[in-house]
Input
Amino acid sequence: EDQVTQSPEALRLQEGESSSLNCSYTVSGLRGLFWYRQDPGKGPEFLFTLYSAGEEKEKERLKATLTKKESFLHITAPKPEDSATYLCAVQGINDYKLSFGAGTTVTVRA
Amino acid sequence: GAVVSQHPSRVICKSGTSVKIECRSLDFQATTMFWYRQFPKKSLMLMATSNEGSKATYEQGVEKDKFLINHASLTLSTLTVTSAHPEDSSFYICSAVETSGNGDTQYFGPGTRLTVL
Output
């Protein structure tokens, strides 16, 4: 069974204070690793898909990286609008299902 | 691109009534859609996989006769909560799979807040 563990559970940052979120996973054949952002009371918003170890993707202040066992989401010089819950999910080779981690709730103070 | 809508965004109903939630992919066709349920401060729990033109596949522990799923077209899936009870109150979110040259990506709807009185 696919498993995804995210850490830390919560992260409080000062505006401009860079940090990283961790997503450790076990899957029998990785089709893709996904990062989503979720604001309270809304559906998850797609950020990135990573397919193979060594791959990196960037979007504004966010950068996602992937190894064979984990993924990191780096937030560079965050702003208050980056406050959200960040969800990591893996997709195995057998179907389209996603297995989600519990998420990391990031709060950025001005 | 890749927009998924849900309707309604919020619904309040009396115990024993049925509620239908619609999920639409607005700018792409989706053979596969998913329905999730999310409890406060928890991650998404997959309820079922909705496949266009065929029966839905339900996750273990999800009552298929209570949560009826219909995927009649490549842009629309519906979830009907039958004989709703207060314990069915939750945040329901759908997703639709977009297939492209870069792979398959699930795009999520904005969610539907169901409150059963």
Summary: Chain A has one domain: 3-109. Chain A is about 0% helix and 60% strand. Residues 3-109 of chain A form a domain with the Immunoglobulin-like fold (CATH 2.60.40.10). Chain A touches chain B at residues 31-32, 34, 36, 41-46, 49, 51, 87, 91, 95-98, 100-103 (CB under 8 Å).
